[in-house]
Amino acid sequence: MNDLLRDADDLPAVPGSRIAVLAVGGNALIRADQVGTYREQIRAANKVATNILAMVREGYRVLVVHGNGPQVGRELIRSEEASTKVPPHPLDVCVAATQGSIGDLLMRSLRNVMKKTGLQRPVSTVVTQVLVSEQDPAFHLPTKPVGPFLSQWRAKEVARSLGYKVVEDAGRGWRRVVPSPKPLDILGLEGVEALLGAKHIVIAGGGGGIPVAVNARGELAGVDAVIDKDRTAALMGGFVGADVLLMLTAVDNVYADFGKPEQRALEQVTSSEMRQLLDEGHFAVGSMGPKVESSLYFLEEGGSAAIITSPDKLVAALNDRAGTRILREADDGAAGVVKRQLQLFEEPTDTLEE
């Protein structure tokens, strides 16, 4: 137990100072072919923890951004089922709940796996609000399915009584759809940077972040939306000056002409080559598209490489032996240039006197 409570200054020096951002999908913890019991989630979290620690052993300070697709859906079910007894939670509060629960799960797994392997690092989860704009076009065209599958009758009743937009989802039933606006800023990023500097493994931006916007009164308010976790990971990576953005998915490589007889695995490509493939429509909006877009944004903000691969190929991909590696080019921008954060509120002009 004492090993878990050691001060960061007592830990061995981190070999190197590179920062890697790891984006992990929520379905890595609750797979589609599982019930999703807590015991199943613990086993899945242990595998994720093993991947994170492999990155630490490779000499990286690691910032983890996880998704929450299945988890936030379950939070919405709990909220709806209990609505006759307690007021239901809005979507942004459900996202916040998953940040806490998934953060707890990953921290526990990391500490347990570290105890077995002898590697020790402090681990912290940061509840993270992410700024979006109420003028984002996504608010006029909700496309992200969330929550449970509903019968057509129940979906129409929910749409009428609660004002939700619902659509049929791939013949499996009807679901609520919500906006997925682009992240503009990470609130409280200073804490994330301080923890990385203190040698912590940091879990932040969970579920893409708790979506907040500045309302007409100039106040921060939660909004009913979900933010793509890959976009948030790319934004955070740019802000903290990360060298590598690594996104885990179900396949070992990104493919051009995917599903066609001429499909080919992409291994090492430049950002301009990847941009051309994206513009030609090789990557579906609901699949690999957001990962490729996030990769290109990260490189434009000064990152050196973006890697997309499966969990099994993570270590090999870090050593350029597997996965799809997208490399920054000279015209993407100067390496190491960190984008300035937005100034939400004016600095106070008066100070407290002693």
Largest sheet: 8 strands, mixed
Radius of gyration, in Å, reads 21 Å
The percent range for strand residues is 15-25%
The number of domains: 1
CATH architecture: 3-Layer(aba) Sandwich
What is the element string, with H for helices and E for strands?
EHEHHEEEHEEEHEEEHEEEEHHEHE
Task: Indicate the percent of residues in helices.
Answer: 25-40%
- Secondary structure category: alpha/beta
Quick one: CATH class?
Alpha Beta
Are there runs of 5+ residues with pLDDT below 50, and where? 1-16, 334-339, 346-354
| Strand line-up in the sheet with most strands | 3-9-2-1-12-16-17-15
- Counting DSSP E segments of at least 2 residues, the number of strands comes to 17
The geometry reads as globular
| Quaternary | single chain
CATH superfamily: Acetylglutamate kinase-like
Average per-residue pLDDT, rounded, comes to: 86
CATH topology: Carbamate kinase
Terminus-to-terminus distance: 42 Å
Number of continuous helical runs: 9
Describe this structure in words.
The protein is α/β, with parallel strands linked by helices. Helix 1 (38-57) crosses helix 3. It has one domain (2-10, 17-131, 188-332): Acetylglutamate kinase-like (Carbamate kinase), CATH 3.40.1160.10. Strands 3-9-2-1-12-16-17-15 form an eight-stranded mixed beta sheet, sandwiched between helices. The chain has a four-stranded mixed beta sheet with strand order 8-4-10-11. The chain has a three-stranded antiparallel beta sheet with strand order 5-7-6. The longest helix is centred in the first third of the chain and has 27 residues, at 91-117. The chain has nine helices and 17 strands. The chain has helices at 38-57, 69-81, 91-117, 152-162, 189-197, 229-240, 271-279, 289-300, 314-318; strands at 18-24, 60-66, 123-126, 129-131, 144-150, 165-168, 174-178, 185-186, 201-204, 210-214, 220-222, 244-248, 254-256, 264-266, 268-270, 305-309, 324-327.
